[in-house]
């Protein structure tokens, strides 16, 4: 009696996904673009004055992505997040601002602002 071994076929390899045809669904790629960052800051300022702090924070965050060396964008992002009472995110933005800013008086003012927050807000 011959034993017949059933040959198992390997699972069919799935073909790689084709590139996304709808450009709006493709992930956004950021490159250094100070002009676009400035536009985002200007739009963020408009929303901040509305006061639509959530929309302002989104625009300031976009500005930091277009120009990661923009101290102004990080300062304004921190201010918007502070207004939203998102103190953890505001602290991160302010610390990045302190790292980038050149004016020591401004750095000290931001440090003092962070120090005034209640201890429970420091962790949020």
Architecture overview:
The protein has six helices and no strands. Helix 3 packs antiparallel against helix 4. It has 124 residues and is mainly alpha-helical. The model has no long low-confidence stretch (mean pLDDT 84). The longest helix is centred in the middle third of the chain and has 16 residues, at 34-49. The chain has one domain (32-123): Tetratricopeptide repeat domain (Serine Threonine Protein Phosphatase 5, Tetratricopeptide repeat, Alpha Horseshoe). It is elongated and about 70 Å long.
CATH architecture: Alpha Horseshoe
Task: Give the full name of the CATH homologous superfamily.
Answer: Tetratricopeptide repeat domain
| Count of the separate structural domains | 1
Sum up the overall morphology in one term.
elongated
Any idea of the CATH topology?
Serine Threonine Protein Phosphatase 5, Tetratricopeptide repeat
| Uncertain ranges | none
Please bin the fraction of helical residues: 55-70%
Please provide the ordered H/E string of secondary-structure elements. Answer: HHHHHH
Mean model confidence by pLDDT: 84
Please tell me how large the radius of gyration is. Answer: 24 Å
Structural class label: mainly alpha
* CATH class bucket: Mainly Alpha
SS elements, strand count: 0
How many helices in DSSP terms? 6
């Amino acid at each position: 009696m011959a034993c017949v071994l059933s040959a198992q076929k390997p699972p069919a390899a799935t073909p790689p996904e084709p590139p996304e045809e709808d450009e709006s669904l493709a992930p956004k790629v950021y490159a250094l673009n100070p002009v676009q960052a400035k536009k985002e800051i200007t739009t963020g300022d408009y929303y901040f004055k509305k006061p639509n702090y959530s929309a302002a924070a989104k625009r300031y965050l976009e500005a930091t992505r277009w120009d990661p060396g923009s101290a102004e964008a990080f300062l304004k992002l921190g201010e918007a997040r502070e207004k939203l009472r998102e103190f953890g995110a505001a602290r991160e933005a302010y610390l990045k601002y302190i790292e980038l800013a050149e004016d020591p008086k401004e750095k000290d003012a931001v440090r003092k602002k962070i120090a005034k927050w209640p201890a429970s807000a420091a962790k949020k």
